[in-house]
Amino acid sequence: MVDDLLLCLELNVAGRVADERGAVLGHEVGYCIRFDDCTDPQATRIKVQKKRGDLRLIVASATLDAEKFRDFFNQNDTGDPSKDTSVILTVEGRTFPVDIFYIQSPVPDYVKSTVETAMKIHQMESDGDILAFLTGQDMTLAN
User: Fold this and answer.
1) DSSP string, 19-41
2) What pLDDT shows up at residue 16?
3) Would you say residue 69 lies in a domain?
4) I need a surface site. Which of 17, 83, 105, 132 has the fewest CB within 10 A?
């Protein structure tokens, strides 16, 4: 299915992605450049290629450094902003006050401590949302 295809534009990423997925380069993960097509039409789901004029990339985040992303993807070396190939579009939204809390010292079971802290906040504060940042999914599910 084409809907399942992931496209990367940096060729050196193909080998790394294949390694991290435990895949064979040229099978599930491949690359395609002029005169060198290292893909399998039936199996490749992640394809790395150097140029594709019709490709558009949208990166949406509330916290990323937009200028850094724009500069990375911009292929304009002239210094003329009218020739930029990458732009920043901003969509303004409502912001809400945020309180940030940190623990004073390390705890032996951070998942348990996070749940206990969220429950205390829920019981002591008025209505609102609680967002907790934890490590990767594997570590969180293991606890």
Assistant:
1) HHHT--BTTTEEEEETTEEE--T
2) 79
3) yes
4) 105
| Tally of domains in the chain | 3
Q: Is the pLDDT of residue 119 over 90?
A: yes
Are 143 and 100 in the same domain?
Answer: yes
pLDDT recorded at residue 48: 54
**Residue 82: CA count within 13 A, CB half-sphere:** 0
- pTM value is 0.37
Q: Is the pLDDT of residue 84 over 80?
A: yes
Q: Is the pLDDT of residue 51 over 70?
A: no
Edge-to-edge strand list for the sheet holding 29-33: 6-8, 46-49, 29-33, 36-38
Domain that includes residue 72, residue range: 62-94
CA 108, CA 112: separation in Å to the nearest integer? 9
